[in-house]
Amino acid sequence: MSEIKKMDEFHIFSSAYVRAAVNRSQYVNDGKKEIAFIGRSNVGKSSLINSLCGRKKLAFVSREPGKTRTINYYAIQSRRMENEEEVRQDWYLVDLPGYGFAKTSQQNKDSWSAFIADYLEHSPSLQMIGLLIDLRHPGLPIDMKAYEWLRSIAPSLQIIGTKGDKLKRNELVKNKKLLEKYFPGDFPPIAYSALTGEGREELLKVIEGKICD
Ligand SMILES: Nc1nc2c(ncn2[C@@H]2O[C@H](COP(=O)(O)OP(=O)(O)O)[C@@H](O)[C@H]2O)c(=O)[nH]1
Ligand SMILES: [Mg+2]
Fold first, then answer.
1. What integer pLDDT is reported at residue 66 of this predicted model?
2. Residues with CB under 5 A from ligand 2 (ion)
3. d(CA 191, ligand 2 centre) in Å
4. pLDDT per residue as tens digits for the range 114-152
5. What is the spatial distance between Cα 92 and Cα 134, in angstroms, rounded to a whole number?
């Protein structure tokens, strides 16, 4: 695809960290649309946010599963051409705390879901949740539980298989099919790699549909 064509298509041209919210009074809620990402700790959420925004260090990437429980808002500006006119959109990417690192007690799990439920319930501009699943491990019980719960309360749910570059082509195809089977929904799962950018255009198309309509 030529660079000119790409600039005509929906793309993010500006991204900035806004705030880490730890309770409801800190939710941004200024009427702009929100797209949130969630998944197991270490699944590749921060890397995906950086890759979508074309940034290296917007969201903090770590080898160690994080323990801080904050909702991180990033202010996004995107644009696309409509009838030969440039139209811009202001919205938020939201990084939700991960679930399921090793020593999590039942009490921690309960407070995690209460924390997420509160955000979902009090974020009227939320358009979609992207649920990230490691493509190497489709169908883990903890991910399936999160999916069952989220799909009953999320405005819409998009499954994103992460770290696609870590699999051989045939494994990738096979595991993507398994994601379809384990996580049925209105839209098929997207296989993503923050390393190669695979799936990026596809995910941006889905986001465009939520942000521009
Ligand atoms: N090879 C590869 N590694 C990735 C990818 N996405 C994330 N990682 C690695 O996985 C680890 C966790 O990533 P991070 O984005 O911090 O996960 P988070 O805890 O879900 O935010 C880091 O070491 C990343 O470099 C990917 O698409 N490909
Ligand atoms: Mg992270």
1. 56
2. 45-46
3. 19
4. 999 999 999 999 999 999 999 999 999 999 999 999 999
5. 24
Instruction: Provide residues with CB under 6 Å of ligand 1.
Output: 39, 41-47, 61-63, 66, 98, 162-163, 165-166, 193-195
With a cut of 70, list the residues of the chain below it in pLDDT: 1-6, 62-68, 101-105, 107
Domain spans in the chain, listed from the N-terminal domain onward: 3-212
User: DSSP readout, the chain?
Assistant: --HHHHHHS-EEEEEEEEEEESSGGG---SS--EEEEEEBTTSSHHHHHHHHHT-SSSS---SSPP----EEEEEEEEEEEETTEEEEEEEEEEEPPPB--TT--HHHHHHHHHHHHHHHHT-TTEEEEEEEEETTSTT-HHHHHHHHHHHHHSS-EEEEEE-GGGS-HHHHHHHHHHHHHHS--SS--EE--TTT-TTHHHHHHHHHHHHH-
Could you tell me which CATH class the domain 3-212 is placed in? alpha beta
The Å distance, Cα 56 to ligand 1 centre, comes to 12
